[in-house]
Amino acid sequence: MTAGATLNGQCASCSHLTGGMEVSWFLNPGWLIAFPLFGALLLLFFGRRIGQRAGVFASGLLGLSFLVGLILFATQLSHEGQQRTAYVHMFDWITVGSFRVGADLTLDQLSIVMVLVVTGVGTLIHIYSIGYMEGDPRYPRFFCYLNLFAAFMLTLVLAGNLLLLYVGWEGVGLCSFLLIGFWFERAKASNAAKKAFLVNRVGDFAFLIGIFVLAKAASTLSIPLINAAATKGLLSQTQKLFGPGPYLPAGIATVAALLLFAGATGKSAQIPLYVWLPDAMEGPTPVSALIHAATMVTAGVYMVARMSPLFQAGSALTVVAWIGALTALWAALMASFEFDIKRVLAYSTISQLGYMFLANGVQGYSAAMFHLVTHAFFKALMFLGAGAVMHSLAGETDMRKMGGLRKAMPITGYTFLVGWLAISGIFPLAGFWSKDAILASAWHQGQYALWAIGVGTALLTAFYMSRLYFRVFEGPLLVPDEVEAHNGRVHDAPVTMAVALVPLALLSVVGGALNLPGSLILEHFLEPVVGRSEVPGGLTPWLLASTALVAGLAGIALAYLLYVRSDGRARRASLYGRLKVPIVAAANKFYVDELYGRAIVLPGKALANFSAYTLDARGIDGVVRGTGELIAGISERTRRVQSGYVRNYAATFLIGVVILISIVVVRLGAA
Amino acid sequence: MTSVAPGFYLILAGLMFTIGVVGVLVRRNAIVIFMFVELMLNAVNLIFVTFARMHGTVDGQILVFFVLVVAAAEVTVGLAIILMIARRRNSADVDGLHLLKW
Amino acid sequence: MNLSVLIFGVMFIVALGASLAMLFSPNAVHVALFLVVAQVALALAFLLQGAYFVAAMQIIIYAGAIMVLFLFVIMLLGVDKREALIEPLRGQRQVAIGLGLLLAAEVSYSILRGIHLAGLGSGGSARLNAINQNPGNVKAIARLLFSRYLLPFEATSLLLVVAIVGVMMLARRIDAAASLFEPRVAESDTHIEQEREAV
To answer: CA-to-CA distance for C8 and B4, rounded, in angstroms?
Structure first.
């Protein structure tokens, strides 16, 4: 087995792994990261001079990355199966004694999918932002952060070892913080940014511990090697063949996998660390679309798929699946009673991410990636549509103050309609196929409970999204008072925004073609990396698909009854009357934030206060000041010896004389 | 004549010296303090004489002579100074000179 | 009871008594007079120990000149000023008495122990008596004074001159044209009176 010989030098740690796609200086995954990174640096230092051209500049650079991605993809396609992986060693990063970590990139089928999503959807959102952020005083900085985010996300996706992945992991968290708090003059925004960062930190801490465990147990941080070690640990006969170690026993693999997954719950907003995502909606809408729908939050899903051998070696996948499923249901419940349109979309994202983790948990990795891609399309689409609505309604987000906007804003309305149908799982849009793939995987793994939760959540998903659509885009025209006062004209999305909306809508329609049952293009593409998942033929898949479709239609129907029909208000009131407690609980996000506040934030603040005021101000400062005051006090008292009175001085002499004579006396006595 | 042992003279001198020291500390009039200093010098003279007797030479007595002369010179100058200071301040109280302090 | 012992006893009591009396007299003149008594008693002690010349010197110089000088100054500054009995400085009296007792004890102990350690024997008195007989006390002193102790002798004479000059400098009036021999005293006196009133 020959190594992937590259012009940049061999990946020192992967010399015995398969993979043979050749890359050159010119055709190199490193460019994918280099372009947006260069853009970010340039905008950082020369942003003011670049001014209003920053948007085009940044979009152009990311577009270049997309082109390189396409070229790399084409190169991959010209190879076969196992030969589609490229290992690139960019430079030696850390060399401390025997601990060596290089900046290694791994480009395989899994990463190219992520690369295309990040650069493709990312470029569209960059273009959208040109119009959306127009007039903002910090316009260049916004694009600097966006490009920086893209660079970090691509680092995460292309990383060949866990440390480089962690760099990207942390980097996207940082950019998320910067972008959520972009309008930092608003207290809500900066608080939301802090909350996002802190909650992510908790997850990142667990992730780091997981890295430590793996570094110790497998003596390497290289992802292919860790996965190989985990696989070896799984197959006892492999142990016999390859001898002892490094291999990961099941227990350690489980622990490490759970720790890494804990990091994923933070980054991808699952239970228990999802609380930051709804508040993150304080950031500009393009940010919500890019980071909190399409890319950053999917990092956890990607990571689990990437480290799938590790997860499979132990019993971590059960945890992943259940947390995914429960999160999906939980978030769907909260979305059903939320009035802020962006927050509904946020909870929806959390819920759909739960689906992806559910898929990962039942070893349907390609199904998870399929849903990741389609979700990126229609969720980004809906976020951008919501952004267009806000843009024309002077920033209003409360759905109770909107109505009938489809006629007033046709482009926005119709594209949003496409997204709505897609997420509700309506045939033949993309969401139908991807959601069905997940549910089918669950069923075929025998996880009927998870399947049931998935179907229930599908119903709720259709319900809350329909509720959103009906209230905002259907019915009589209703605009907030400020807009009424000005001129009452509601304008549709400008060209720069429409340029992003339309392609995403198209992709939401035809995206299912990626992985239609039968052709299973995506699945076959990813097979060499994530293994094959069993999707048997026969009648069962059609029955399952129908069940999912029925659930979706039921959700839409329910929303129709409650929100479109004229007697809907009465029905809603009676439902509210009968189910008051659970409805109020759900509307208040089940009081999770308050719980965290009491259980974690308050003790933390108490500890901080204690450290600051007792330990530091009184303790340490006390010692320092106290020493000074002690000296001062001693000197204050001691200097009174110099009273000025000669007789006192004479007495002092006498004391000295007596002491001297005492010495003489003692010596005389001893002599 | 059988003489008294020299130890007794030395004890007497020691006691007189001590009384002189206590007097310097307790009294407030500058001249009186000076007189107690003279008392101390006298006690020392006695000690010298006794030592001369113990050794059987007259060297100690010569030292007494010198002490005497120096005491005279010292008293002269000292009293002149005390006189000037006391004249200026209208008081011979030593406690009035308390400026050499912190 | 030996005569010398008796005389010693009387001398002891008088000397010590006079010293203590000095301590407790509020009047400065009394203090001076008690000091004179003590000095006379000490002269007696000198005589008892065979130091005849020094005894004479003690009376003439100490009791006769120095104490008289003291009395002159006391007169100049106010004879009847009595010292107040209360002690303004806190703790001074206690410290003085305490240290005094301590000092007395230590000195006594040192003396006795030192004598014991020195071990000079009792031959000293006899030798001294022999010297006093043969060349005589004054001659013996003179012989030593002008041979071995010549330098200190000359130095002390220099010291006396310096003291005299110093006192003369200290005591002169600050008056530009005043000469030491001219009777300008009255004028300068009124000058100082005027200064005092101005201040």
So the answer is: 7
pLDDT at A156 over 50: yes
How many C-beta atoms surround the C-beta of residue B1 within 10 A? Answer: 11
Q: How far apart, in whole angstroms, are the C-alpha atoms of residue A542 and residue A536?
A: 11
Q: How many residues does chain C have?
A: 199
Query: Per-residue pLDDT for C174 more than 70?
Result: no
Instruction: Name the token pair of C70.
Output: 């003291």
Element (H, E) at C9: helix C3-24
Give residue-wise pLDDT tens across range A568-609: 777 777 777 787 887 888 778 888 888 888 888 888 899 998
b/e per residue A257-276 (b: at least 16 CB within 10 A): bbbbbbbbbbbbbbbbbbbb
**pLDDT interval class at A233 (50, 70, 90):** low
- List, as one string, the DSSP characters of A232-285: HHH-HHHHHHH-S-S---HHHHHHHHHHHHHHHHHHTT-TTS-THHHHGGGS-H
C50 touches chain B (CB under 8 A): yes
Encode pLDDT of A280-337 as tens digits.
999 999 998 888 777 888 899 999 999 988 888 878 889 999 999 999 999 999 998 8
Residue B29's SS3 state is strand
Cβ atoms of residues A611 and C55 within 8 Å = no
C62 touches chain B (CB under 8 A): yes
Using the beta-carbon criterion (under 8 Å), do B94 and A643 form an inter-chain contact? Answer: no
Closest by Cβ to B62, choosing from C8, C131, C145:
C145
Cα separation, A243 vs A221, in Å, equals 21
Output the six-digit token pair for C63: 């009791």
ipTM: 0.93
Angle between helices A139-158 and A54-77 (to 10 degrees): 20
C38 and B3 within 8 Å at the Cβ level: the answer is no
Q: Which member of C92, C110, C117 has the closest CB to residue A648?
A: C92
**Burial (CB count within 10 angstroms: exposed 0-12, middle 13-18, buried 19+), residue C190:** exposed
C-alpha to C-alpha distance for A170 and A158, rounded to whole angstroms:
15
pLDDT band at A7 (very low <50, low <70, confident <90, very high): very low
For residue C146, the 8-state DSSP code is: T
Cα-flanking dihedrals φ and ψ of residue A302, to 5°? Answer: -60, -45
CA-nearest residue of chain C to B75?
C66
SS3 string, C38-79, reads HHHHHHHHHHHCCCHHHHHHHHHHHHHHHHHHHHHHHHHHCC
> C173 CB contacts (<8 Å, ≥6 apart)?
C185, C188, C192
pLDDT digits (tens, 9 = 90+) for A480-518: 777 666 666 677 777 878 888 888 988 888 888 887 776
Residue A246 has φ and ψ, to the nearest 5°, of: -75, 125
Residues constituting chain A: 671
Q: Which tens digit of pLDDT belongs to each residue from A94-117?
A: 888 877 888 888 888 889 999 999
Separation of alpha carbons A27 and A71, rounded Å: 8
Closest residue of chain B to A654, computed from CA coordinates? B21
Q: Count Cα neighbours of A289 within 13 Å in the Cβ-side half-sphere.
A: 31
pLDDT band at B10 (very low <50, low <70, confident <90, very high): very high
- 3-class SS of residue C61: helix
C-alpha–C-alpha distance, residues A405 and A412, integer Å = 9
* CA-wise closest residue to A13 among A100, A98, A82: A100
Separation CA A633–CA A639 (nearest Å): 10
The sign of the CA dihedral C35, C38, C40, C43 is: negative
pTM, two decimals, is 0.69
- What whole-number distance in Å separates Cα of residue A417 and Cα of residue A398? 19
Tokens encoding A517: 């049952």
Q: Nearest residue on chain A to B20, judged by CA atoms?
A: A654
* H/E segment holding residue B39: helix B30-55
Express as a percent the part of chain A with pLDDT over 70: 91
